[in-house]
Write a structure and sequence with these properties.
Elements (H helix, E strand, L loop, with lengths): L2 E7 L3 E12 L2 E6 L4 E3 L13 E7 L8 E8 L3 E8 L11
Antiparallel strand pairs: 1-4, 1-6, 2-3, 2-5, 6-7
């Protein structure tokens, strides 16, 4: 069955939101995703720079390339999924890595 990513949290940020990019008047703008992100059964949904992504706000420590950040994704059905994400500030958008 399908599930929905409805939130995220990390101990290195005061607030974590799901964001996406939309084009308005020829300008790309970020905005929060209302209602979460639906993921169909057996499918994946890429979170990446320049598209749907997790936005860390109020980061509480200095993060450098190669640092590992704990991240918890919350799904309606699956509940909490704990991840470790490697900081990569140099990656260009759109590579899907």
């Amino acid at each position: 069955t399908a599930d929905r990513l409805i939130g995220a949290a990390s101990p290195v940020a005061q607030m974590v939101e799901l964001h996406t990019h939309i084009e308005a008047d020829g300008i790309m703008r970020m905005r929060p995703i209302e209602g979460g992100i639906e993921v169909q059964a057996g499918q994946t949904h890429m979170l990446q720079r320049g598209g749907d992504h997790v936005m860390l706000m109020g980061v509480t420590e200095t993060l450098e390339n190669g640092d590992v950040v704990p991240l918890v994704l919350t799904f309606e059905q699956a509940g909490e999924v704990e991840l470790e994400v490697v900081v990569d500030n140099d990656r260009e958008q759109g590579h899907g890595n």
